[in-house]
Amino acid sequence: MGVDLSFLVRSLAEQATPEPGTDLLRLPTERELVSSLDISRGTLREQLSMLEMLGFLTRTQGRGSYLGVPDASFIQLYFDLSSELGQLGGGQFRSAREMLEISMTEAAARLATADDVDVLRGLVDEMVRASAAGEDERALEADLDFHRHLFTVVNNPIFTLLHDGLSHVLRDEVVDRRRVAVEREPLQAGENRVIDTVHYGIVDAVEARDGEGARSAMRRHFEVWSALTGEA
User: Fold this and answer.
1) pLDDT tens column, 60-113
2) What is the DSSP string of 131-162?
């Protein structure tokens, strides 16, 4: 019979010992685990292989097996497969991103330091300069870095994991949205794109520690994008 992975991880963690100088937990030997968990060696190996594939387990020849917190790749795998199977669509990803970032911006308004505000404003400046110079890739990277930094300010590992798990999907969406927006909003000499300058309102609200204003500014940011790309 199979073993519930959640139960297995808890059981393994209870029997593991901290590895000095790391965030890893060293597991007992397979023989000890088979005895303590009352499962067959084949079942144990199958479940350990599953944990290794998901990034919760690392095995080092001659040293043993270790439990650790995985990166966001297993969440990315889930979202990729759900998308391929048609269980999740672009509209759902977009809605989730908007709700998540609106909440993050409100929290960032409470937590941001003066240095954080300088970083955010500098990234918007970079967006504006890059767009004006026709350097769309540089503008894209500044845009992504801006939104990523809001999560850095809040520094909640749960939300950071969600953001990182969604990041590859969101990058594709931002690339497509920027491409459409650039086509529909050609710049004249001396002009700046509203998809870039709308970020200044977010920075101003964060600097003023205005949580509700930050929520409104981020919501306005998404409304501008939706209007330009025909998603409103």
Assistant:
1) 887 889 998 888 888 888 888 888 898 888 788 888 889 999 999 999 999 999
2) HHTT-HHHHHHHHHHHHHHHHHHH--HHHHHH
- Reference 197, options 153, 159, 163, 146; nearest CA is 146
Record the tokens describing residue 182, joined without a space: 């650039």
- For the chain, how far is it from start to end, CA to CA, in angstroms? 51
> Are the C-beta atoms of 163 and 148 separated by less than 8 Å?
yes
Higher pLDDT: 1 or 102? It is 102
The amino acid present at 160, given as its one-letter code, is T
CA distance 187 to 104: 31
Q: How far apart are CA 91 and CA 198, in angstroms?
A: 22
- What is the 3-state secondary structure of 38-50? CCCHHHHHHHHHH
State the residue for tokens 């992504």.
Answer: 144
- Beta strands 57-60 and 17-18, pairing class: unpaired
C-alpha–C-alpha distance, residues 106 and 214, integer Å: 5
User: In Å, what is the CA distance from 177 to each residue of 29, 103, 141?
Assistant: 52, 22, 14
Question: What gap in Å lies between CA 151 and CA 22, rounded to an integer?
Answer: 25
CA 140 – CA 167 distance, rounded (Å): 13
pTM for the model: 0.78
